[in-house]
Amino acid sequence: MGTEPGPGAQAAYRLRFRTCWLWLVGVPDTCLSMGLELYLDLLSASCRAVYIFARKNNIPFDFQFVDLLKGHHHSKEYIKINPLKKVPSLKDGKFVLSESVAILFYLCRKYSTPSHWYPPDLHTRARVDEFMAWQHTAIQMPMSRILWIKMLIPMITGEEVPDEKVEQMLAEVKNSMQLFEEKFLQDKMFIAGDHISLADVVALVEMMQPMGGNYNVFLNSSKIAEWRMRVELAIGPSLFGEAHDRLMRLAEWDSSTLDPMVKERICELLQKFK
Amino acid sequence: MTTVSRTPSGHACVDPGEHLKPEFLKVNPLGKVPALRDGDFLLAESVAILLYLSRKYQTAPYWYPPDLQARARVDEYLAWQHTAIQLPATNVYLCKSLLPHFSGQPVDTVRLDRLLGKLKPALQHLDQEVLAAKPFLATEQVSLADLMAFTELMQPTAVGCDLFRDWPRLAAWRARVEAALGPELVQDAHKLVLQPRDPRDAQQDPRLAQELVHRLQERLS
């Protein structure tokens, strides 16, 4: 626990790419460190979206692991990359970019990925934009909170969050899932229509977050459960599973290894819920 | 000198509480403003609407620059601002203006200070990191990022919580954006939020007022 998922697979992927590149053009290995770097911890839903999208589209990158559980996002080295101390970050030569939605759009454009990911049609694109805007507060925030209150806070502080607060947050999530189904999914195969787009990837990885705390938001709606299967299939079950491995094994984490400063901050966070 | 893009526009006013009623929910089931209706096409979310308008009406490129990295900077701000700026700034506004208006109670200053505190790190970031490097939030020219930021920060400011007071670079940026947009347009857009509320308006529909107070209390707790 505490290592990036599939480190062997990651290293092999980079090695394969480097070997090909070297073989083709005889470029020294040192030049490759100027390639695309993605600073990630797959415990974070936003990181998973970026990871899945880059891997699915065979976009070559260096996986720079920023271990959130060890507080590496607060390290001096990482603050130089992103002073906001958040993951994911992208580094492309000298260009540094934060915010998963911005990173996804950047990758789409730079690597000319298939158009269904971010459809060019005015109205369809607007649907994707609409979801990408709405999800920050309506999906990502509440889903992440569930993981905190059900798993991380009790695990780290040894205390439970008051029932009333838990109920309030679960109700918020339920409401969001209902709105998602009624407004964004409706009777379509995917959010934008017949094909998977960035919106579906972002939606699903965020809805997976409570799974890390053994809370399943997909149980109440067969429509959403079916959409979930479709999205996983389109992404590829093996890639999807690999991306979620660290999250699903969160319960195994030895929280005594947590940096004391980070632990203190989390204890302060608990106070806000009381 | 930048000019504000002119698009054919017709706008419909939405009064407080109207966004909860069935007629409006047909336009936007999320029960929020703004919402756009273009023929049969309905669209919610201000960021999505701005992107739609800039594409459909092919507005001047500086709003949403075509250059890969410049565009990424605008996207980065537009994504970040939802939770860093829009949510906390709206909460400040609700606490300072809307809740007292509908409840008839004075402003809860303890709560207001707490809410202002949540906004502080973001304002500090903009003032001391972002604007230290360039004149506008994303690029060297005004963009959709500045437009969103300007209106979100003006909201609480217009009702007496001056968010620019402690941040000189942010204040200078505000003046630049106002100049770029045109002072008359800015004044016109903020007319409603700048004028003091008539306490009698709140009691026109006491049941609705109660409902709104309940929702606001929950949201701001």
TrEMBL record, chain A:
**Cellular localization per UniProt:** Cytoplasm
Q: What is its EC number?
A: 2.5.1.18
For the GST N-terminal domain, which residue ranges apply? 34-115
Where does the GST C-terminal domain lie? 121-251
Alphabetically sorted, this entry's keywords are: Cytoplasm
Highest taxon listed in the record's lineage: Eukaryota
Q: Which enzyme class?
A: transferase
Question: Known catalysed reaction(s)?
Answer: RX + glutathione = an S-substituted glutathione + a halide anion + H(+)
Does the keyword Translocase feature in the UniProt annotation?
Answer: no
Q: Which family does it belong to?
A: Belongs to the GST superfamily. Theta family.
Task: Report the protein name in the record.
Answer: glutathione transferase
Gene name linked to the record: GSTT4
From TrEMBL, chain B:
Q: Which CDD domains match?
A: GST_C_Theta (cd03183)
EC number(s) per entry: 2.5.1.18
**Record's keyword terms, sorted:** Cytoplasm
The GST C-terminal domain, residue ranges: 67-200
Task: State the top-level EC class.
Answer: transferase
Q: Which residues form the GST N-terminal domain?
A: 1-61
Q: Which chemical reaction does it catalyze? A: RX + glutathione = an S-substituted glutathione + a halide anion + H(+)
Recorded hits in Pfam families, A to Z, give: GST_C, GST_N
Q: Superkingdom, according to UniProt?
A: Eukaryota
Cellular location(s): Cytoplasm
Q: What InterPro entries does UniProt report for this protein, alphabetically?
A: Glutathione-S-Trfase_C-like (IPR010987), Glutathione-S-Trfase_C_sf (IPR036282), Glutathione_S-Trfase (IPR040079), Glutathione_S-Trfase_N (IPR004045), GST_C (IPR004046), GST_C_Theta (IPR040077), GST_Theta (IPR051369), Thioredoxin-like_sf (IPR036249)
Check the record and name the PANTHER family matching this protein: GLUTATHIONE TRANSFERASE, PTHR43917
Q: Give the family, as the similarity comment puts it.
A: Belongs to the GST superfamily. Theta family.
What name is this protein filed under?
glutathione transferase
Q: Look up and give the organism this protein is from.
A: Felis catus (Cat)
Supply the source organism's classification: Eukaryota, Metazoa, Chordata, Craniata, Vertebrata
Encoding gene per record: LOC101092550
